[in-house]
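In this section we walk through a basic example: taking a raw amino acid sequence and producing a predicted 3D structure, encoded as discrete structure tokens. The instruction is simple. Fold the sequence below.
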Amino acid sequence: MMQTYTTQVHAKQQNISRTRNTTLPSQGATKSSPTDRPFGKYKYLCEICKRVFADKRYLNDHMRKHEGIMYKCEYCPKSFSSYRSMQLHLPLHTGKYPLHCGQCGAGFNLRRELEAHENQHQGKGFTCLNCNKILYSEKDFSKHQQKCYPK
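The resulting token sequence is shown next.
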């Protein structure tokens, strides 16, 4: 028989807790594998809205929203909880992208976006067998599969 336990470490001043859910084997049982665990790795919980994050950095960005600390775009009314998110947004206004397609010159912020775009030029894609939709990045295809084949 397995016993489940949860530990929480509350961080002062930020209303967060780090939660790890693990399944422990009882006497005589074999060691549990990561698939036996309800959540696997550490999760970071916002105590204010109960949203869970896999990485503390994302929780810290999220906490800025609750604290009213935001980075504001100088071109439009949008605001962002992280400086990086704001930096990724700015090229929409300035047109200055760090990456460009060698074939058509289209600009991109992230390498994975550029690679997906280049896959379109090359006719490389992932076809959903359920609806025949073609997606050009493995990440987008995976997300689509979860929607197209709900559990």
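Looking at the output, two observations stand out. The chain is about 30% helix and 25% strand. The first helix runs from residue 56 to 67. In the next section we compare this with other chains.
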